[in-house]
């Protein structure tokens, strides 16, 4: 895990050589040996690594005493995964903020491209929250595996290859950020007091250290991507990266652009205004209720409006949509067993309804989704951002038994809290890093970066490419708000509203603007687009990265 910074140049040569060599070996052996037994392959890999290590010892002599991170971070096996890794995986901690144990230990899981890791872009993936782990994306969205739940609750899931993994076309880093989230931690819990600006600068520091360990990827095009509250993480981090490039700090990151899925940007666009037009358009409220809201709330769409008539009509909206799955209005809402018993069985929904949001994944879309999302009905405002667990602790709501509505994260929770899994991915055990939770309440997080619109304007005007996409059945950050703010940017339309296609079907709609800004919808997808529409998601992702027309 440690690089001793005495002879950086030699480390660089060593790393580049090693990675190319391992890559060569994996190519030449991979194709031929698909059918080999797991044990044999594992041993084989170990031998290759050892042989590589020895040959490099001979070439570089004294330098080899340096312990290079990638070798120590290579993931060689995972419990309940009985196939050959489709590409090299690395994982571990990067310590930032010096300060040893009291610094911030940021956990990453890096999946190298299954196509051409030397040339393919490097993409950093961030889930939102704030407080939610990027293993949400890894386990449930576009990671290299599909996770089949164990028959008995609490047991380890079985891992299968995900044919629509984003690692098919890119090198992708899943980062738990900021410290305190997922498997990232600090011994000094004062570090869990944080906010937008601190997080952006920490993640920038992480990137520098990460590229020091993977210098062979520094020339690849680099993109930042994320979802939901990462609508704030992504532009603020991009801003830091661009500042770094301008000031000539080394290493120079080959930053090209960013992608944001169902991301928050600005409370004026993402709040109740977006919600009301979404639920009306989707037929979830009547024309009468809609017209009352328009007439009485006069654009001041605040739930605590002092106007009684406005407040009353907003209550009608809230009542109409309260029992829906906020992350995809087509999906059933997961009821925890006690609630399910009281209310009847969620899977008793009509079959036609259950199929509406069907996915091509071999495994069902989860019925749960924890607020990796911006909490429902809490638009982006300056100041302290409550997490779902914090909101629930305050609300004392008996009806939800302290669970987030519609939420169940059993597979990821079982996997990431297993001691053997943690060992395999070089994560600290619970005694050090704490339990893994999809979204934590360990943070005290301030939204202090303001509206994202000036960030988007500056970044796109500097020539960075931006793809802003929305699953069009998400009610958490509805596409209506995203469509409105992208339009508000005021850029000339260069590719007028049109369907885009995947598998010869309309997969959604897009509008292309000047300055390489694209707004795109994914038809039928919820908050976590690739979870619902994996094929479509891989299609737009790869076309956009390659600079093709989507
Ligand atoms: C703990 O973190 C806080 C805030 O980041 C910092 O001011 C303090 O010096 C740290 N304490 C130690 C012992 O490192
Ligand atoms: C829910 O309904 C399904 C199908 O009707 C049934 O298999 C399952 O056992 C039920 N679960 C509960 C908790 O009642
Ligand atoms: C955007 O650019 C302007 C002009 O350079 C600058 O004054 C402003 O602070 C920038 N805002 C952000 C959020 O980057």
TrEMBL record:
Q: What is its EC number?
A: 3.4.16.-
Q: Which InterPro entries match?
A: AB_hydrolase_fold, Peptidase_S10, Ser_caboxypep_his_AS, Ser_caboxypep_ser_AS
Protein origin, superkingdom: Eukaryota
Tell me the GO molecular function terms. acyltransferase activity, transferring groups other than amino-acyl groups; serine-type carboxypeptidase activity
Name used for this protein in its record: Carboxypeptidase
Question: Which Pfam family is an annotated match for this chain, by its short name?
Answer: Peptidase_S10
- General function of this protein: Probable carboxypeptidase.
Any one GO BP annotation for this protein: secondary metabolic process
The reply on keyword Ribosomal protein is: no
Q: Which residues cross the membrane?
A: 46-64
Give a yes or no for keyword Mitochondrion in this entry. no
The listed locations are: Secreted
Q: List the GO terms this entry assigns under cellular component, sorted alphabetically.
A: extracellular region
The UniProt keywords, alphabetically, are:
Carboxypeptidase, Disulfide bond, Glycoprotein, Hydrolase, Membrane, Protease, Secreted, Signal, Transmembrane, Transmembrane helix, Zymogen
Q: What family classification does the UniProt entry report for this protein?
A: Belongs to the peptidase S10 family.
């Amino acid at each position: 895990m440690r690089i001793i910074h005495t002879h950086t140049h030699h480390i660089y040569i060593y790393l580049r050589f090693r990675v190319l060599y391992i890559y060569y070996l994996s190519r030449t052996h991979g194709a031929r040996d698909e059918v080999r037994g797991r044990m044999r392959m594992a041993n084989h890999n170990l031998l290759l690594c050892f042989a590589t290590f020895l040959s490099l010892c001979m070439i570089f002599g004294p330098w080899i005493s340096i312990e290079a991170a990638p070798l120590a971070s290579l993931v060689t096996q995972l419990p309940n995964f009985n196939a050959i890794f489709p590409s090299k995986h690395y994982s571990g901690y990067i310590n930032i903020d010096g300060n040893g144990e009291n610094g911030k230990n940021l956990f990453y899981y890096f999946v190298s491209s299954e196509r051409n890791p030397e040339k393919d872009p490097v993409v950093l993936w961030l889930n939102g929250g704030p407080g939610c782990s990027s293993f949400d994306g890894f386990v449930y969205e576009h990671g290299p595996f599909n996770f089949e739940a164990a028959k008995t609750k609490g047991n380890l899931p079985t891992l299968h290859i995900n044919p629509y993994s984003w690692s098919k076309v890119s090198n992708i880093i899943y980062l738990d950020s900021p410290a305190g989230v997922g498997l990232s931690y600090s011994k000094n819990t004062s570090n869990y007091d944080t906010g937008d600006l601190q997080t952006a600068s920490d993640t920038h520091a992480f990137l520098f250290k990460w590229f020091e360990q993977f210098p062979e990827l520094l020339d690849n095009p680099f993109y930042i991507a994320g979802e939901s509250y990462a609508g704030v993480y992504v532009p603020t981090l991009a801003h830091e990266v661009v500042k770094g490039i301008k000031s000539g700090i080394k290493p120079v990151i080959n930053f090209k652009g960013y992608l944001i899925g169902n991301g928050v940007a600005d409370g004026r666009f993402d709040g109740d205004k977006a919600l009301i037009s979404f639920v009306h358009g989707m037929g979830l409220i009547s024309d009468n209720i809609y017209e009352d809201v328009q007439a009485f709330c006069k654009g001041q769409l605040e739930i605590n409006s002092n106007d009684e008539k406005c407040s009353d009509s907003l209550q009608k909206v809230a009542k109409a949509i309260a029992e829906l799955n906020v992350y995809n209005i087509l999906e059933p809402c997961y009821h925890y067993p006690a609630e399910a018993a009281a209310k009847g069985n969620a899977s008793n929904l009509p079959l036609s309804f259950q199929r509406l949001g069907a996915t091509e994944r071999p495994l069902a879309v989860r019925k749960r989704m924890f607020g990796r999302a911006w909490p429902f009905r809490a638009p982006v405002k300056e100041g302290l951002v409550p997490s779902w667990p914090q909101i629930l602790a305050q609300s004392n709501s008996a009806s939800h038994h302290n669970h987030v509505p519609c939420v169940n994260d059993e597979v990821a929770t079982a996997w990431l809290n297993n001691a053997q899994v943690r060992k395999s991915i070089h994560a600290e055990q619970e005694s050090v890093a704490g339990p893994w939770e999809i979204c934590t309440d360990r943070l005290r997080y301030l939204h202090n970066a303001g509206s994202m619109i000036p960030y988007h304007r500056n970044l796109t005007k500097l020539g960075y490419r931006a793809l802003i996409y929305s699953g069009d059945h998400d009610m958490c950050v509805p596409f209506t708000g995203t469509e409105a703010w992208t339009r508000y940017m005021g850029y000339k339309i260069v590719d007028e509203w049109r369907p885009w296609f995947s598998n010869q079907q309309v997969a959604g709609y897009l509008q292309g603007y000047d300055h390489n800004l694209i707004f795109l919808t994914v038809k039928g997808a919820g908050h976590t687009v690739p979870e619902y529409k994996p094929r479509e998601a891989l299609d737009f992702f790869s076309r956009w990265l390659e600079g093709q027309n989507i």
